[in-house]
Amino acid sequence: MSSLSDPVSVLKGVGQRRQIALNKLGIDTINDLLTYFPRRYDDLSLKDLSTALDGERVTVKGIVITAPTVVFFGRKRSRLSFRLKINDDIYNVTFFNQPWLKRQLSLESEVIVFGTFNQSRNQIQGMKILSQDQNDAYDSIYPVNKEVKQATIKHLIKLAFEAYGGQLVDIVPTSLRKKYRLESFHDTIQNIHFPESPIAAKKAFRTAKFMEFFLFAMKIQILKVTRRQEDPQAQIKYNPQLIQSFKDQLSFQLTDSQNKVSHEILTDLQQPLAMNRLLQGDVGSGKTVVSAIAILATISAHKQAAIMAPTEILAEQHANNFAKMFAKFNVNIALLTGDTSAVARRAMLPRIKDGEVNLIVGTHALFQDQVTYDNLGLAVIDEQHRFGVHQRQALRKKGTSTNMLAMTATPIPRTLAITMYGDMDVSIINELPKGRKPIKTSWITSAKTEAAIRFVKKQLQSGNQIYVVTPLIEESEAVDMKNAVAIYERFKAIFEPNFSVGLLHGRMSNDEKDQAMVDFKNNQFQVLVATTVIEVGVDVANANTMLIFDADHFGLAQLHQLRGRVGRGSTQSYCILIADPKNEIGKKRMKAIASSTDGFFLSQKDLELRGQGDITGLKQSGMPDFKVADPVGDLNILTVANQEAREIAIDRNWQKKPENVQLAQYLKFNQTITTD
């Protein structure tokens, strides 16, 4: 019995060689072939050149009035030329590297040419010659390789649709198709491959995009349900009075956003389900105090909490901050990093194992084999994108039913949050603590560098400290960018002996990097020249100005993250971007970062301008590949599809509803998604 999962080799004309060539295009089955969508369409309807735009692709019919000639350049390059009379006007036609087309042309014959119109030269650069009986006014153009030609793909898709079109059953429930005016799956496939008009193709693609997002979202929901099976051991029966006492003794009031997020996390902890939550918030938005509430709640339920940071210096900062915050509460803190001495480690490990220590702060050392916990109820991961999946899971597995709170100061746009972290609940802190002054950001060209240095000198004379950031460590012949070593030498010459200048970059050892940051924090030098290694770093309240060279070589999200290193104190802070962007996109990015301090707006803008591949300065490996849907351009469809999937999955018996039978069956055999 035939099915859409049949190999493409069942089609006439697909032998072993052609099957291998199709496999290289990702086409293994009939379903793969039918969902191998065109990358564009050519409008083959005849065009009146008097209304055509310069550079427009056009189809014209005319009489060949000069003998076609072919001129060869080297072995493989050629130019075919002739003149074409269209009504009373004469146009030059050229075809490059298609000498065989000469056989289809003869003097005084009528010909239909598809190509690009050059208005100033009265010329058409031909792409193909169409047959007189061409029926398709709207032609599908597919991505191909050297082994598979356009004509082959079109022919095979037509064969597959004729033989298997009847098996294209509707997976999206009827109620959703009616609600959003979506086409049937059969009509969608037909109108994508064989559209009668641009409108028909557009409608079909709209359905295909919704379907792709919706099926992905359903897989995420199933994953979420399977991961969050009822687990009474995960429940944190915390003391609400203790949490209120903690809030009351703080020297500041929580923002509305912090209160909202704290409530979401505490509600999660009370459930007999293991929490899996992502906490997003700009640098300085107050994620630490929110995590402190979750930690104290866990400890009040007689369980342990652990917080893992990406660097030893950041772990130490957390340990100090929590020690101050929990000074009036029964919290015993241990700091466990690679730097912890063997003597201290030997004394600490038994206290962690028997539960005497109830908050363990550290780095990767937290999940080493010799570290055993008494009852790990909460694992907090700070700057979660700095850890791999297995590292995060390794810490979680140190307990039997551990709740997970992942934190990031890299604002992730809704697009990525939905697709990459769809199986996590997302909390967002979207306001800064009261009294915090927004950082004043300006963009200047390199010609104004001296003025920026004069501004920096004034800030130093006022007792402030300065970050200077550059993309490279040493000079590169390949790229003309400022480098940390050269700037370090230059700034030493300018500012010393009045002010000390330090250097920090990724090639230094961890000990050297940590020492440089400690020295800067202790004001042993006032200017720190650094690469992006400071993107995740300690708080230096006295640092109020950042100078970023070659700022157009960083992503917007990364620039925003770097900028967040200043503005930690009460004085006005500044960020000066020095950049000479070479194109409009570069200029738009500089204008965006200079005009906004909203990390979520900037991360979405970065996604739109740079594409989805590199949003945090690190490749987003979790970003799924969609065939037709674009998570950035089609964000509205993505959001709606995600909401609908959530609504369906809330009902535990959704698979048993008649309209969901095909959907349930599809997901049963296509549950291949793996996410973080």
Describe this structure in words.
Residues 612-623 have low confidence and may be disordered. The longest helix is centred in the first third of the chain and has 30 residues, at 198-227. The protein contains 21 helices and 21 strands. It is globular. Among the domains are: 8-39 and 144-206, no CATH class; 45-130, OB fold (Dihydrolipoamide Acetyltransferase, E2P); 440-596, Rossmann fold, CATH 3.40.50.300. By secondary structure, it is an alpha/beta fold. Pfam families: DEAD, Helicase_C, RecG_dom3_C, RecG_wedge.
C-alpha geometry: globular
Main sheet record? 7 strands, parallel
Beta-strand share of residues: 15-25%
Mean pLDDT: 86
Name the CATH class of the domain at 440-596: Alpha Beta
Query: Got a strand count?
Result: 21
CATH topology of the domain at 440-596: Rossmann fold
The assigned structural class equals alpha/beta
The level of helicity is 25-40%
**CATH superfamily caption of the domain at 440-596:** P-loop containing nucleotide triphosphate hydrolases
- First-residue to last-residue Cα separation: 38 Å
- Can you list the strand order of the major beta sheet? 11-12-10-13-14-9-15
Rg, alpha carbons: 31 Å
| Uncertain residue ranges | 612-623
Catalytic activity: Couples ATP hydrolysis with the unwinding of duplex DNA by translocating in the 3'-5' direction; ATP + H2O = ADP + phosphate + H(+)
GO molecular function: 3'-5' DNA helicase activity; ATP binding; ATP hydrolysis activity; DNA binding
EC number: 5.6.2.4
InterPro entries: ATP-dep_DNA_helicase_RecG (IPR004609), DEAD/DEAH_box_helicase_dom (IPR011545), Helicase_ATP-bd (IPR014001), Helicase_C-like (IPR001650), NA-bd_OB-fold (IPR012340), P-loop_NTPase (IPR027417), RecG/Mfd (IPR047112), RecG_dom3_C (IPR045562)
